[in-house]
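Dear Dr. H.,

I hope your travels went smoothly. While you were away I took the liberty of generating a structure for the chain from your last submission, since the lab meeting agenda had it listed for discussion. I wanted you to have the full record in hand beforehand rather than looking at slides cold. The sequence, exactly as received, is reproduced here:
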Amino acid sequence: MPLLPVPFAIVALLLAAAGIMLAGPRMVRVADRLADLTGLGEAFVGAVLVGAATSLPDILATVIPAARGLPELAVGNALGGVLGQTAFLAVADLTYRRANLEHAAASLPNLVQATLLITLLGGVLALLAAPEHSVLGIHPGSLVLVGTYAYGLKLVNETSTTPMWHAVETSDTNLDVPEEATVPAAQQTGLWWSFAGLAVVLGIAGTTLAVAGESLVVNAGWQQAAVGVFLTGIGSSLAELVVSIAAIRAGALTLAVGNVIGGNTFDTLLIVAADVAYRDGPVYAAVGSEAMLVTALALVATAVIALGLLRRERHGVGNIGMESVVVLGLYAVAVVAIT
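The corresponding predicted structure, in token form, is as follows:
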């Protein structure tokens, strides 16, 4: 797609964000039903299926700029999406009036996902600080990140089927209890096709975001890191916000939290995709200090969420847990430091 004039680029950003927000709630209803019918559970479906599908805009908004020689825009989009989606979880916490979201949705798969995400973000931070090294233009550490992600998904699946730890059930705990699979096989197939169609909508929106973001950098002269972290990164991550809020309203709290944490875990691998697409050497060596800052803030924010899932504070400040307050504060730090 060709670059757009600045006014059209801004309109394209808004239209793509609207498409993402419209597709999100429908995807939640389909995914929640699939979680019950397949027996995979909300945490696994939210982390893997929904997390990957809602990451399609992030994938395209990262890979396209990297392939076109804009590494800071690409990496900023990926890392900004992770930090922004974690902040979205704090926003979603405000919509659940009964108790702190991390208390009600505590589950072992979500804790394992959070630990995996912390590990991956730590790996990205190390690669950003490491000396430049590449094989065929790709840093060997990227392969380690992919292997870590694959092994982490295996652990998530194992803890979903044969957990060795259980969260203490309280009056505010929302359990993931599958409904009986009473839907005919043909209708189940229709659910899968619906899910795929919604994923295509998100993919088109992601392509539009990528072109709009690049247009603002090239034609308007806006800073790559700022556009990636706060415009395309947030725009491509709106699906996680809408999906999480819709899941909370549907009573699928574990799906809501698993969607954000799982989506963030998947989005961390977008750095690998950017490394492959960027052909002028390892992408880690082509970005500035802003990438390290956002990675560090995302890592700390994820650790805070994990602590919230472990501590399980029932009521925090007003109707929001203290971990959500801290996460929003960390995002504010990123805004002040980068803009």
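Two observations you may find useful: The mean pLDDT is 80. The radius of gyration is 19 Å.

With kind regards,
E. W.
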